[in-house]
Amino acid sequence: MKFLCVVSALLFVSNSSLAKDKCVQGGLETNVGVRVKIEQSMPMNTSLLVMDAEPGSRYIRAEIAVMAATPDPWFLVVRDSSFHPIQTFTEADFTAGSRWTVRVPGAQINLDLSAGLRPPEIKSPTHMYMPANAGTPYYSIKGDRPDYTPLYSVPSPALRRLGDHAVLILGSAGTSVWACSGVAVAKDLVLTNWHCGAPLGTASDSAYWTDAVAHETFMDASWDDDALSADYDVAAVEAADKDLDFALLRVSPTLASRAGIRPAVIKATGPASGQVYAVHHPAGLPKQLSRCTILANSIKGWTGIEGAEFTHNCDTEVGSSGAGIFDASGKLVGLHHNGFDRIDGICDEKNKAIRIDAILEYLGNKSDKTRALKKELTIQ
Fold it and tell me: What pLDDT digit, counting tens, does each position of 214-228 carry?
């Protein structure tokens, strides 16, 4: 029997604990936020709705619904705690129901309405925020400290460019917000793990990547060490497979002025041996880089498919799921998806990734739709 093997951050205080056993049963996702389902309305005779998150939060974002329209033109400006304008909505933005704001750095969001004599009725049914620290942190690492580095502190411009393809993916349901990583494979297609499509502990396969989950999932291609946001919504789940643990998501920019994400070039033959790099969001952190090597380039997949995965020693954390693995030339060779396993009572201390060529084979053989999707990718 196999268990995901992880190491609690609390164990870092004791090298002896790590030496005894790096395999501790955990989960594949990490809780990185709180979703507050309390409906708040624009107060009567005012034009400002203020929502606060936990002090010290990294960001807050709000769902906005127009409950009663008006023929008069209006503007709703999303502002941060210092009243900087972050985003602007008009009535044209609400033709298809409610909308989410982009993430606003800090612990407060202000919805500032400018309208004529007949203002619309605006409510916020839900808001979510990311506290300073992620919940349920677990690690699959080589040593006694995670060996990953903030991406933009790395001297190499070539390695920094790999971050152009990486996105932080945030899903939400109920009161939970969970994080995964993803990699752009076309300007509006993002690849991540199938298991990122439902809250931690979901048992039913049919609950993954439903329309409701997709609607409540967003991603940020600029979750790094700057204050900019490049948020995308999931427009459609184009393909997904549990056996290969992947989901291919069609995305659309939350801000209409945003261009697409720069996609990765895919290596047609998948991984070989040697050095590889992972760009990921461990525990929802800004973009991190892991330098590592392939251990075995072809192993049985997590549900039994021969040759579907490879092992590597890129240090990861829950939240790294779905991260792209790149070879020394910067081509995408895999999709990280799993940490250490306990097999027959022994911890293997190996991280696992899906071979990208296995995903390409699936797309090429599954259906006319997936074959058309494959043609959108840059494969060399």
Answer: 988 989 898 887 767
Q: How far is CA 376 from the centre of its chain?
A: 21
Q: Where are the domains of the chain?
A: 38-125
Residue 373: which H helix or E strand, with range? helix 368-375
Q: Where are the alpha helices (DSSP H) in 138-293?
A: 157-162, 211-215
User: What CATH number has the domain spanning 38-125?
Assistant: 2.60.120
Dump pLDDT digits (tens) for 98-139: 888 888 888 999 999 988 788 888 999 988 888 776 665 566
Please choose, from the candidates 69, 61, 59, 15, the residue with its C-alpha nearest in 3D space to the C-alpha of residue 36.
61
Give the whole-angstrom CA distance, residue 130 versus residue 59.
6
Rounded to whole angstroms, how far apart are CA atoms 139 and 296?
A: 21
**Alpha-carbon distance 285 to 220, whole Å?**
12
Question: Does the predicted model carry a pTM greater than 0.70?
Answer: yes
Pairwise CA distance, residues 140 & 30, whole Å: 13
